[in-house]
Amino acid sequence: MKNSRLVLAGAAVAGLGGLAYARYVERLWIDVRRLWVRVDSPGLPPDGLRILHLSDMHFTGRDAVERCKIQRTIELMADDAIDLLLVTGDFIHDDGGLDAAMTLIHRLPRPRLGTFACLGNHDYSCYSWLGPARMAWREAAPGQQLAAATRRTAEMVRRVITNDRLYLGEHNNDMVDFRRRLATEGIHLLVNSSHRVQVAGVDLWLAGLDDLMEGRPDALATLAGMPSDDSLRILLAHNPDLLLDPALQQVDLAFCGHVHGGQIRLPLLGSPHTQGTHLSRRRSSGWFQYGRAVTYISRGLGEGIRLRFNCRPEVALIHVLPAAGRVATGGGAAVAKTTAAPPAVKSLPQKPHCLRLTA
């Protein structure tokens, strides 16, 4: 009996310690990933482009860990030269985080060619785990509220277990103010649209899709006007499920977020939930390839649930270099840390793009 109590006490202490680590330690242990990739496309200068990729900051403006994370990110990036800053959505967790997001963007090194962004689902809506049950209760017929809320909660649990997509929103953020603040900070918001950047030695197009869950992504509108053969083409898409569209697989580079790398990665199992994408529990961030599109999926800087375990928050500084045949003699600067070429994705199961918990 005594031994059993000691085991239970030890397990409880270990559990509390793990929870404290996941909430207060790993969330601040920011991984600055310094990577390179070669792209066979015109439009790149001989020494390439340095792209800083941020995603999923999920700021609320109310969290002390969040404030420390902002300061730490600024310190880590202070000495880096950046050509492009790309943000793939979820600047905020709710409206309260807008000042924090703008503070971070403003204090990062100023990118030579500008800052570009697409929208994420949290930029549109505030979420709550109780949202589905509350919505079911409000919308059910009199006398059936409890049954409706129970069914909706059970459906949510099922989707967590089967790694299916969740929809938990019930409050719309102030998008007018959000867009105004981004414009004031000089952030080019791309919503089913594209923008050309032409300076000495650089000719590239940046395109951004609307969010898959809360917006209305339009691949044809996004790619309209982008040339197919004489410029580097970069796509921003918050949700990597969008890259299942063959039309979008024709760009040269793509950047995504949304999945947070799973946030919690357990031994053997991997991530219990990966936001319901086609990505596996054991591999839900890093380099992928969809058709022609070499794609980087970020673990993100912030969190939905304020925990991280074995899945550190990240920012990625990616040096995009011309393919070997396009590099002049002596060209192609090296970076401190490198990664191998992106692995090919041989097959991707086709899942519905958006499964919502609706009434």
How far from one another are the termini? Answer: 50 Å
Tell me what portion of residues adopts beta-strand conformation: 15-25%
Lateral strand order in the biggest sheet = 1-14-2-3-4-7
Tally of domains:
1
Written as H for each helix and E for each strand, in order along the chain, the element string is HEEHEHEHEHHEHEEEHEEEEE
Helical amount: 25-40%
Task: Summarize the SSE layout with pairings.
Layout: H1 2-24, E1 31-39, E2 49-54, H2 64-77, E3 84-88, H3 98-107, E4 115-118, H4 121-124, E5 125-127, H5 131-139, H6 145-161, E6 169-172, H7 175-184, E7 187-189, E8 193-199, E9 202-208, H8 219-223, E10 232-236, E11 253-256, E12 286-290, E13 293-297, E14 314-322
Helix pairs in contact: 2-3, 5-6
Describe the structure.
It is built from 8 helices and 14 strands. The protein is an alpha/beta fold and 359 residues long. It has a single domain (2-128, 168-326), classed as 4-Layer Sandwich (Purple Acid Phosphatase, chain A, domain 2). The chain has a 6-stranded mixed sheet. A 6-stranded mixed sheet has the order 8-9-10-11-13-12. Helix 8 links the parallel strand 9 (202-208) and strand 10 (232-236). Helix 2 runs parallel beside helix 3 (98-107) and helix 5 (131-139) packs antiparallel against helix 6 (145-161). The radius of gyration is 21 Å and the shape is globular. The termini are far apart.
